[in-house]
Write a structure and sequence with these properties.
The chain has 15 helices and 10 strands. By secondary structure, it is of the alpha/beta class. Strands 1, 2, 3, 4, 5, 6, 7, 8, 9 and 10 form a 10-stranded mixed β-sheet that branches. Helix 3 (93-106) crosses helix 15 (387-402), helix 4 (130-141) packs antiparallel against helix 5 and helix 7 runs parallel beside helix 12. The longest helix has 20 residues, at 192-211. Acetoacetyl-coenzyme A is lined by residues 90-91, 168, 177-178, 199, 203, 232, 235, 239-240, 243, 246, 256-257, 259-262, 335, 382, 384, 412-414. Belongs to the thiolase-like superfamily. Thiolase family. This is Acetyl-CoA C-acetyltransferase.
């Protein structure tokens, strides 16, 4: 078996994230991922380079994009001999792509690779309705005039008026992500005030990070945007408190302010062996230390849809002999403020940790000053598959600036899954 090598995170590049149906409304997944990759190539001098692999994905994909990532590579300035492929693990896609690339580097199978993700809810892959699809397939198969007329006769005007629009919902429950998260918020008694405070902190911290120039070498302006469009530096607890609940019952706590907005955007990160980094005179920001995935039975059990990271993190900690407190930074994806708070509450709960995780003592609480220190998805927005790359690049740079330390990444995903990782320096 090959020796396991260290895996370096050399940096990232993303385009600013845009609110759905606004600045990037006319851009496709391919356009946006190409823009993010081109920026990475320019920043790291990768033009003409044959990388080991490029792995990326989108949660919402058009059928024409059957291998979106390969198309993006062919349209980029990388050597066309760079293999590329798509993966999809809902909101865990970007981080899972980084894990795939990292593991291949660790095993010595490749020396360097790019991981990425992209999503647009503006340019959503709307499909024709099922009856119309069947009739069109029949028409395509028809070899005689009679067969063609028979297929055409099955087409109805109302079919065209009933397209299949992708829903932000779980196929097995019919509930949206937000409706699931609202159930979890109730179960963990997460207050509206706590959610709004987390949302406000996310906006304030992201705004401060922009003002410090933190994203200057992590981002390429795109279609006139230089900052994440959702960022509201002027948000306040008073304004957040006035927003009407959007999920759950009358007394529900989740609003547009403490939920992620629908977002368009793309991100990429460059990973390599330390030897490759040295040969290319590229400094290492941080190292990929470990990763883990988990899934919960949200269909039959009483688990919250987005609670899988609560299971993945303790497994990864145990394997590495770490406690939850052994981190300088916690990057917990803010799908919804309530979701972050429910995950933290689970780790603090003696019952949950004993009964669900089989631990003698709770994992305990974290230092909230170390959580999402430069803001997260509530402020930046959440183009599903692009969030992992945003987080990996942000955390790697935070660790590089600190000079040493360890950071935890935790991303909840649709389908009851979670993807988590540790970076260190
Ligand atoms: C997918 C996975 O695998 C896992 C996951 O991550 S799950 C998460 C997936 N993501 C989602 O489900 C995102 C869902 N989000 C949405 O559908 C929509 O954003 C939403 C339904 C929550 C809100 O939609 P909306 O009502 O159109 O929001 P929007 O119009 O922007 O905001 C409503 C109001 O709140 C205000 N507002 C929003 N955020 C604010 C803030 N931080 N501060 C102050 N005001 C704010 C807006 O200004 C607006 O006010 P006005 O009506 O006065 O203009």
């Amino acid at each position: 078996m090959p020796t396991v090598r260290r895996v370096a995170v050399l940096g990232g590049n993303r385009i600013p994230f845009a609110r759905s149906n606004s600045r990037y409304a006319a851009a496709s997944n391919q356009d946006m991922l190409t823009a993010a990759l081109d920026g990475l190539i320019a920043r790291f001098g990768l033009a003409g380079e044959r990388l080991g692999e490029v792995v990326a994905g989108a949660v919402l994909k058009h059928s024409r994009d059957f291998n979106l990532t390969r198309e993006v590579v062919l349209g980029s300035r990388l050597d066309p001999g760079t293999p590329a492929y798509d993966i999809q693990q809902a909101c865990g896609t970007g981080l899972e792509a980084a894990i795939l690339v990292a593991n291949k580097i660790a095993l010595g199978q490749i020396d360097a690779g790019v991981a990425g993700g992209v999503d647009t809810t503006s340019d959503a892959p709307l499909q024709v309705n099922e009856d119309m699809r069947q009739a069109l397939l029949e028409l395509n198969r028809a070899r005689t005039l009679g067969a063609r007329l028979k297929a055409v006769a099955k087409l109805r005007p109302q079919h065209a008026l009933r397209p299949e629009i992708p829903r932000n919902a779980e196929p097995r429950t019919g509930l949206s992500m937000g409706e699931h998260a609202a159930l979890t918020a109730l179960r963990w008694e997460i207050s509206r005030q706590a959610q709004d405070e987390l949302a406000l902190a996310s906006h304030r911290r992201l705004a401060a990070a922009y003002d410090r120039g933190f994203f200057d070498d992590l981002m390429t302006p795109y279609l006139g945007l230089t900052r994440d469009q959702n960022l509201r530096a002027d948000s306040s607890l008073e304004k957040l408190a006035t927003l009407k609940p959007v999920y759950g019952r009358e007394d529900a706590t989740m609003t547009a302010g403490n939920s992620t907005p629908l977002t368009d955007g793309a991100s990429t990160v460059l990973l390599a062996s330390p030897e490759w980094a040295q040969a290319h005179s590229l400094p290492v920001l941080a190292y990929f230390a470990d990763s883990e995935t988990a899934a919960v039975d949200y269909v039959h059990g009483d688990e919250g849809l987005l609670m899988a990271p609560a299971y993945a993190v303790p497994r990864m900690l145990a394997r590495n002999g770490l406690t939850l407190q052994d981190f300088d930074y916690y990057e917990i994806h803010e799908a919804f403020a309530s979701q972050v708070l429910a995950t933290l509450a689970a780790w603090e709960s003696p019952e949950f940790c004993k009964e669900r995780l089989g631990l003698d003592a709770p994992l305990g609480s974290i230092d909230r000053d170390r959580l999402n220190v430069n803001g997260s998805s509530l402020a930046a927005g959440h183009p599903f598959a692009a969030t992992g790359g945003r987080i990996v690049a942000t955390l790697a740079k935070l660790l590089a600036q600190k000079g040493s330390g360890r950071g935890l990444i935790s991303i909840c995903a649709a389908g009851g899954q979670g993807v988590v990782a540790i970076l260190e320096r």
